[in-house]
Write a structure and sequence with these properties.
heterodimer, A: 236 residues, MetI-like fold, 75% helix, B: alpha+beta, OB fold (Dihydrolipoamide Acetyltransferase, E2P), 2 domains, 6-stranded mixed β-sheet, 5-stranded antiparallel β-sheet
């Protein structure tokens, strides 16, 4: 079904540069996917540690993280562009206007989202569950694994929110990617270009592709969320 | 992982687990101060006390889930520290007041501790099946744990700890979340299991009846300290201080002073009345006369039915008026104002037969052996 939908949209846009569309879509998916994955690798362990430990400045760290969840992507773009600019501190890496630069900016955007929602997800668990697991002889890693498992629904929601925050993002992608065709043009920045040119049909087509993409990815994650063990009968 | 706590051939220390000089502080307030506590192998220690006494905190310390100083906790004579706490925890089984089941099947819940220990699932299967059977929840094996009743969940939680065949079973109010009928059945089952398996056990409870039934010894905690450790019978008969007396149900606590003492019987002046008690405390000593309500017999004053023989054998007689009557199930708690306040507990039937109401004049009698004297300052 999903395949035929994609076909339909491709036919819709065939006259408007189908090959470009596939390329742009794949780049969107790739950049957002990689950025979300990296954010998960940073945010999940860090969020778990924040959720489970108690230290003096924990409240301060949490409010910084929560502020980070609302970081305006344009500000992130500005900041990353400044760092990666040819004359900037990390200019020697030559990353500005590359997909790598876009991944960096999107990691900065998605990490606080996944981090903050991970803290919230684990914070919802009964604090004594951890004691119970340890009291049954779970090692530190076994304890963390089971806590993740118990919080899998809100953790998947965190992952979805992280992905959603970057797939739909345009300001940072534009600023650090440069919206160069065949190199750094993604769905969101392409829509901006087409609207700028007055090509509304193309823009709408791209918009449909973007929506479909977000829908499919979130659909897969939601399916995984509902399917978990012990949940089959919960929906009766 | 090598097990540092494996039984060795060498002579074992008598206590399975020992706790020495342990202090737990919350904020600036010490919530637990334990000088010494030993848990004997194969015996059940009931930990009782009012809310906030530190019972649950002590249990978590014993589970090595709250850290106290190095060397404070030891298992079979070996100190439990950061490096050995996981190995130690794999010798215990923990049950908390709420079942805290994992969001998976009943079977996987009971198998969880075995999985943590790396027991192969083929080896785990018969053990899990056995304990599900023994706790009467075998039919729930494949049900999601979130869908069973709280009584069933508590049985699963007990099975989850017992399947580990722990050296020490730590139970924190294991029947707190179930109704009275389920509680009574679970209590029967647990009593039988403890007797069969001879597992050392520490059970936290605020229910004195549970403690008396299950405990080989009973520790009474008040204000973060253990005030008294002894057999339940001795704690009930001879509470160490007023707090313990209050907790174990000596509702009458009359301050007085010993006026004479001979042949093991002390005469105490209580607000002008004389009370005799079995005690060797010397004359002049300020004391608290503790008396359990069920040890007091009431007679209507002026009724011709008072048999003088029984009255004289009871030694202690105080007259007064009933100031308060409170129904408690099939019993009635009667407060008598006789200079000081005396509490008696009689059946509802006899209260009706005797026509007792508030204001009725009564004679209260009790044996000298029922009075326990606690020395106090002054």
């Amino acid at each position: 079904m999903i395949g035929s939908l994609v076909d339909g949209v491709q036919q819709l846009l065939a006259g408007l540069g189908g090959a470009d569309l596939v390329e742009i879509t794949l780049l969107s998916l790739g950049v957002s996917g990689i950025a979300t994955a990296i954010s998960l690798l940073i945010g999940l362990p860090l969020g778990t540690w924040l959720a489970l430990s108690r230290f003096r400045s924990r409240g301060l760290v949490l409010s910084v993280v929560n502020t980070g969840m609302a970081l305006p992507p344009v500000v992130v773009g500005l900041f990353v562009a400044f760092l990666l600019w040819r004359s900037g501190p990390l200019g020697d890496l030559g990353l500005i206007y590359s997909p790598s630069a876009m991944v960096i900016a999107e990691v900065v955007i998605a990490t606080p989202v996944i981090l903050g929602l991970t803290v919230a997800a684990l914070g919802q668990l009964d604090p004594r569950l951890r004691l119970q697991l340890m009291g049954l002889g779970a090692s530190r890693w076994q304890t963390v694994w089971w806590l993740w498992r118990e919080a899998r629904l809100p953790l998947l929601a965190a992952l979805m929110a992280g992905f959603g925050s970057v797939i739909s993002e345009v300001g940072a992608a534009m600023m650090v990617g440069g919206n160069i065709l065949h190199q750094t043009r993604v769905l969101t920045t392409a829509i901006v270009v087409e609207v700028g040119r007055g090509e509304f049909e193309k823009a709408v087509g791209l918009g449909i592709v973007l929506l479909t993409l977000a829908f499919v990815v979130n659909g897969i994650l939601t399916w995984a969320q509902q399917r978990g063990p012990g949940r089959q009968d919960a929906s009766r | 992982m090598t097990d540092l706590f494996e039984r060795s051939g060498a002579a074992l220390p008598s206590a399975l687990v020992e706790l020495r000089d342990a202090v737990v502080v919350r904020g600036a307030r010490p919530v637990l101060t334990i000088d010494h506590l030993a848990i004997d192998d194969g015996a059940t220690l009931a930990l009782v006390g009012p809310n906030g006494a530190g019972k649950s905190t002590l249990l978590l310390v014993l589970a090595s889930l709250i850290r106290v100083g190095r060397g404070a906790l030891s298992f079979r004579g070996m100190p439990v520290g950061r490096d050995t706490e996981l190995a130690y925890r794999r010798h215990i089984g923990l049950v908390l007041p709420d079942p805290l089941l994992l969001d998976t099947s009943v079977y996987a819940n009971v198998a969880a501790g075995l999985r943590f220990r790396g027991v192969l699932s083929a080896d785990a299967r018969p053990r899990v099946a056995e304990w599900l059977e023994r706790l009467g929840v075998a039919h729930l094996r494949d049900r999601p744990a979130r869908q069973i009743s709280s009584g069933e969940a508590q049985r699963v939680s007990l099975a989850r700890a017992l399947v580990l065949e722990p050296d020490l079973l730590l139970l924190d109010e294991p029947f707190a979340s179930v109704d009275a009928a389920t509680r009574a059945r679970l209590l029967d089952d647990l009593e039988a299991l403890l007797r069969e398996t001879h597992v050392a056990c520490v059970i936290v409870t605020h229910d004195l009846d549970e403690a008396v039934r299950l405990g080989d010894r009973m520790a009474v905690m008040v204000g973060g300290r253990i005030r008294q450790v002894d057999t339940p019978e001795r704690v009930l008969a001879a509470p160490f201080d007023e707090d313990v007396a209050a907790f174990v149900g000596a509702e009458t606590r009359m301050p007085g002073r010993v006026v004479s003492s001979e042949e093991g019987v002390a005469v105490v002046d209580v607000g002008g009345s004389q009370v005799e008690a079995v005690s060797t405390l010397p004359p002049g000593r300020a004391v608290l006369c503790c008396l359990r309500p069920e040890d007091v017999t009431l007679w209507s004053v002026g009724s011709p039915a008072v048999p003088t023989k029984i009255v004289s054998s009871a030694r202690n007689q105080l007259t007064g008026h009933i100031s308060r009557m409170v129904a408690q199930g099939s019993l009635v708690r009667v407060s008598i104002d006789c200079g000081t306040t005396l509490v008696a507990s009689i059946t509802r039937t006899s209260a009706t037969d005797m026509g007792l109401v508030e204001g009725t004049a009564v004679l209260a009698t009790f044996k000298a052996s029922a009075v326990h004297l606690i020395p106090r300052a002054g």
